[in-house]
Amino acid sequence: MTPPDLFSPYDLGPVTLSNRIVMAPLTRNRAGPGFVPGDLAVEYYRQRATAGLIIAEATQISQQGQGYQDTPGIYDAAQVEGWRRVTDAVHAEGGRIVLQLWHVGRISHVDLQPGGAAPVAPSAIRAETKTFVNNGFVDVSEPRALTLEELPDIVDDFRRAAANAIAAGFDGVEIHGANGYLLDQFAKDGANARTDAYGGSVENRARLMLEVAAGVAEEIGADRTGIRISPASPANGVSCSDPQPQFDYIVDQLNALGLVYLHVVEGATGGPRDNAVFDYGSLRRRFKNTYIANNGYDRALAETRLIQGEADLFAFGRPFISNPDLVERLKSGAALADINPATLYGGGAEGYTDYPRLDALRA
Ligand SMILES: Cc1cc2nc3c(=O)[nH]c(=O)nc-3n(C[C@H](O)[C@H](O)[C@H](O)COP(=O)(O)O)c2cc1C
């Protein structure tokens, strides 16, 4: 049998990817009025359509789910129309694209919340972190704990957003269960001090994430539903005293739901891969469908792990920002361009759609 190859096609549920390289979700804070992705987003994603799969940036499922300025939404008709233009552009280039569905929970600011209300969270515990609002980084606001009665509404918001994503032409969705946002806040005891059915035990802390996964899978099909988790990441001020049993349990349940993929940020998001002792192989063995690995990958590490059977697909984040033709560059061994940190969040075309392709540089 020939060994698997990073640059060969891969069947992901009902869609075929042209290669195993995935563009990780990347928030860029460039949505237009009404939190609608505009012309620049169409061009940005079109430029990156040679990725086997694009996971479009975290997109709020409701106004309450927003935590940063100028991030796109997927809860009203204008947003669906805006995203439709993006998916059409990517599909016209032969690419595949799913949307990351986001509720930030406590990582928000009153200036972004409906009626200037407090952000919502599992418990009224403020995160030690900042958000990007009013063109600057500021401390997140003090959150309030969600009531039991409100939790079904959160599940419904995810379901509606998933249906909207399909209506906008996406090939599927990725539930954002990572990086210290709402579902990760529930899963990790540093942010969840509840004493009801959604706090305390491993099963209780997993409950909301699993209800969302089941609801979205029922809404659009498990074969179009993926999920991202970051078991050992301290991103956005979360901590967990027992990540291994917590995420082993979550992954067993996600596997039972038949989700099409599990996307795992290994280590600290955007930081060291070995920040904590955690057995990612345990997640890989528990989950029978596609496993996407992320964090600090380069071609050599991806190929090693692919050959060893430790992951099926590899998500690249920062390299895709500054290398729209990342797949071609990895394949040919060409040098990679560096990102400009000053243009990551907010702004216009600069640092967004003006990173050149290699062939443009050589022409
Ligand atoms: C500018 C920027 C925006 C990001 N936005 C998101 C996001 O919207 N959703 C998410 O799950 N992760 C987000 N991340 C994390 C990346 O998806 C990825 O996990 C991280 O960059 C590590 O992968 P890399 O080493 O290939 O860059 C973001 C990272 C960066 C640098």
SSE arrangement:
Elements: E1 10-12, E2 15-17, E3 21-23, H1 39-47, E4 53-60, H2 77-92, E5 97-102, E6 120-121, E7 130-133, E8 136-139, E9 144-145, H3 151-167, E10 172-177, H4 182-187, H5 202-220, E11 225-229, H6 243-257, E12 261-265, H7 280-286, E13 290-294, H8 299-307, E14 313-316, H9 318-322, H10 326-332, H11 358-362
Parallel strand pairs: 3-4, 3-14, 4-5, 5-10, 6-9, 10-11, 11-12, 12-13, 13-14
Antiparallel strand pairs: 1-2, 7-8
The protein binds flavin mononucleotide (FMN).
Flavin mononucleotide binds at residues 24-27, 57-58, 100, 176, 178-179, 228, 265, 269-270, 294-297, 316-319, 344.
CATH topology (fold) name: TIM Barrel
Query: Using only CA atoms, what is the Rg?
Result: 19 Å
Alpha-carbon distance between the two ends: 40 Å
Low-confidence stretches: none
> What portion of residues belong to β-strands?
15-25%
What small molecules does this complex bind?
A: flavin mononucleotide
Q: Which structural class do the helices and strands define?
A: alpha/beta
What is the number of helices? 11
Could you state the CATH homologous superfamily?
Answer: Aldolase class I
General form: globular
- Overall mean confidence score, pLDDT: 97
- What topology, given as strand order, has the largest sheet? 3-4-5-10-11-12-13-14
> What is the makeup of the main sheet?
8 strands, parallel, barrel
What is the count of distinct domains?
Answer: 1
**CATH architectural arrangement:** Alpha-Beta Barrel
* Helix-residue proportion: 25-40%
What is the string of SSEs from the N terminus onward?
A: EEEHEHEEEEEHEHHEHEHEHEHHH
